[in-house]
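Let's sit down with a protein and look at its sequence and fold side by side. Go ahead whenever you are ready, and we will take it from there.
>
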Amino acid sequence: MRPVIPYVVAALLFGIGVFGVLRRRNAILLLMAVELMLNAVNLILITASTTVRSYLEAAGTAAYTGQVFALFIIVIAAAEVGVGLAIILQLYRLRRSTAVDEVPLGEDAAPVVPR
């Protein structure tokens, strides 16, 4: 198998995800960009595992480590989305906006009373 095409697709997905993280102000779109980056990493892990497994089968051993790591990344991504959406919903209830650059950071931030 020639793994060039999956690696190029993964690089494009990761690049789009990085652009989304650096450029977007909306927190929901930011989470979607992070998910794109995680899916690109999953594609790389599975492609590398498939490529290496074809060589290992010739030697008599086979491993599914890429698929196992991809499964762990999917579980972590699901937990990240659950926690992230809960934080974004609370932010929207308090500020009526999901803009990331309006989030108060640090101890100097004044608490906002919900309307």
